[in-house]
Amino acid sequence: MRNSRNTRAGLRGAAIVAAAAVMMAACTPSDPDAADDEGGTSGEDAGDASGGDLRIGTTADVVNFNPLVGNSRTDTWVTNLMYPSMMTLNSDGEKVPALATEWGYGEDGLTAWIEIRDDLEWTDGTALTAEDVAFTVTAVKDESLGTVSGMIGAMEDAEAVSDTRVEFTLSRPDGAFLNSIGFWMPIVPSHVFGEAPTVADFANDSDWVSAGPFVLTEVDRGQRYVLDAVDNYPLAEGGQANLDRVIYRVYPDVNTQVLALRSGELDLIANALPPSVVKELSGDDSLELYSVPSLGWAHMQYNMRREPLDQVEVRRALAHAVDYEAIRQVVLGGNAVSANSSVLTPTFAQWADDTAEEYAFDPDLSRSLLEDAGFEDANGDGMYDDVSFEMIYDTGDPIISTWAELVRDQSAEAGIEIELSGLERNTYLSRTQDRDFDIYAGSWAIIDEPQSNFVLLFDEEGFINYAGVDDPDIDALMEEASSALTVEDARGPLQEIARIVTDEVYDNVMYVEQFTFAATDQWTGFDPKPSELLSVVNPQSLASVRPAE
Amino acid sequence: MAILRFGSLRLLRGLLTLWFAVTVTFFLVRLLPGDPALAVASPTMTADQRAKMLADFGLDEPLLLQYVNYLAQLVQGNLGISFRQSQPVLDILLERLPWTLMLTGSALVLTLIIGLPLGVAAATHKGGTIDRIVQIGGVVGQSLFVPTVGIALLYAFGLGLGWFPIGGAIDSDVYGFEAYISMARHLVLPALSLVLLQIGAYVLTLRTNLIDALGEEYCNVARAKGSSERTVVWKHALRNALLPTTTLVGLQLGFLVGGAVLTETIFAYPGIGRAIYESVGQLDFPVMQGAFVLLAATVVVANFLTDMAYGFLDPRVRVS
């Protein structure tokens, strides 16, 4: 008996050890670096004279390496470094040349043209030409690829008439057409993407051929994406990036990310930091903080399909019941600016209306507006009868979740009851899509081309017309603005739309967030651009960054 | 013969459990509000594009048909294609699986190595200082929240003392022996946080069973025959007290894997748990389902093996 028990115990022990050994062994083939032993610069040499490796933290993996299909932030950050856009943004939110040098419309607005640089080439040595541009935009149109396909409804045809010139035929004048494709559409190599049966199904997950400052060379899903600098990138000063490599490392948790930055494991965090973290990091001398404005705005929308929100007095009462400055200072720690309650925000200097004014915080005004509209407080509890609303928001957004409570408390002072419904993100999206809410609290990430984007917001059928705007005056002005071919011609109708939206409270624009990014002080030369998408990781910025002296 | 019958019955039970888990998961993810097209849609997409996306995902079919298709695929070992990454789910998961196995495996082994002597010490010093510390520590450990433990460990040993890296599973540009050292260094903190969370259950179970066993007559007989207390504890009582602990390994495995979702997220560890975390946010049904199926299968297999081991170890189990 004793012997047999000993044997069993021994077998059990052996089984445990064997299982552990199997698990360890199972990981060995996954050792991502053992397989390709090419040497290269060490991850520790950040800051040396050779340019070094810039290690950037992101919260998510690349989902899709095809830049015409992928639309997550990390997708864009990585593919932006490889597939050039024709335009980029300056600090005033204007589209300025990148791959493109000049562009314009024919007099009747039914043709358009773009001239591109002649000195870029793909990493396999093939020249980047107008043919690649025509191929890309045609594939987007034919296969309805990604977000850009929604912006080129007016395009009938694109043709490369020379190596550097593309000409477009349009079915109607569309003043936002060139800016939209120029900024949003990365150019892909026709001789690579054209080989795939369909561009949509082309995974582009190995042997990358690119024309940006960097090219992907190594992918370890869940861990890192390594991009090497290319020798020839004429858009950078000196003809190539200063860095040797850019390494995106994935840290799903922001707190871990910040610890990694402070311990020197990361050089930069690509995603915008929450205000609470910004406050914590602002005292750290070894870090540099960069701030850029959002290209969108945070707002509340009132569902005008529902009573009594269909009455403008009620919407105005709601708008005047909130202390926006307090929200910006307290909740966002000052990392936000007023949009003067206008959908033409100060980020876009060429569109913004200097005469716009923010809704004053005035609970008494709210009360008198409600009383003028016939609402009463019959039981004398301080709250008006039949003025009670449900406000939905995404609990995954810590900023909005916090100010939602302020809005509720401040509205109560004006006699308006707001019941908060914090929802999980997908539930929130679903209810917004179904227009199933009284008040919606949220934000737009990027509204960069009001001439075309306003249709999404304010057309009766607009995909994100959550409030249910249906206003013939706005419709006519949108028609006028979208066909205007110059900023000067478009500005008038756009500003008039913005005035009507503010006046009728079709969209209550509360603030424009200022995103903050953190890097260690080992690096200099970043070129920050508006929005979280471009921020300090845009190709121009990463091509010019270098070790600090 | 009895062991064969016992084995096939357990196998059947395992398969039924797996089918049940697959079915519940399938319908559960589809009961989630919102649709996957919406989760990835952008405002400039047309209604047609969104409809096309749903059709591409096969989500325009009747639910029952989707279910039958899914089961048919599954028995062929096909877990489907990810909605977001145009890649087979099985490839995505197999790429991640070794890391999770290594993390949970080493956490389990560490737990047993540390937990066994602790449990014995507590049981043999019942009511003493060690026993009290183990009891309090065991309960506290089980009620800790993974992210809190994780961040605390990272803050102390990663940022403060600089002994261990903050995130990831291996450094870049390390080869050969260096790579194994790097893997081990990255493993310490996440494994430690899993150990802290689950060791209480093992130690407390072992302690209770060992105290019971030490009061049994066979222990008294051993003592009467002149065996030292050490022999009584380690050679007689512990053997029997370990049996229920074996069961606990199977039961706790589910918990361990669940803990891995948060642990891998906090420590930026590239395992299956992370894949689940990401796919839930993106409503990537195939990856969610695939991961759950894989995890359910792991737990079912572990329980099957435990049952079988039990059958071998204790003849009474086989017969009943």
UniProtKB/TrEMBL annotation, chain A:
Pfam families: SBP_bac_5. Keywords: Signal, Transport. Residues 1-34 form the signal peptide. One of its GO terms (cellular component) is periplasmic space. It comes from the Bacteria. The keyword Coiled coil does not apply. Residues 29-54 are annotated as: Disordered. Residues 96-459 form the Solute-binding protein family domain. One of its GO terms (molecular function) is peptide transmembrane transporter activity. GO terms for biological process: peptide transport. Belongs to the bacterial solute-binding protein 5 family. This is ABC transporter substrate-binding protein.
Automatic annotation (TrEMBL), chain B:
Residues 97-306 form the ABC transmembrane type-1 domain. Pfam families: BPD_transp_1, BPD_transp_1_N. It comes from the Bacteria. Keywords: Cell membrane, Membrane, Transmembrane, Transmembrane helix, Transport. PROSITE patterns: ABC_TM1. GO terms for cellular component: plasma membrane. It is found in: Cell membrane. The chain crosses the membrane at residues 12-32, 99-123, 144-166, 186-204, 248-272, 292-313. It is a multi-pass membrane protein. PANTHER family: DIPEPTIDE TRANSPORT SYSTEM PERMEASE PROTEIN DPPB-RELATED. Belongs to the binding-protein-dependent transport system permease family. This is ABC transporter permease.
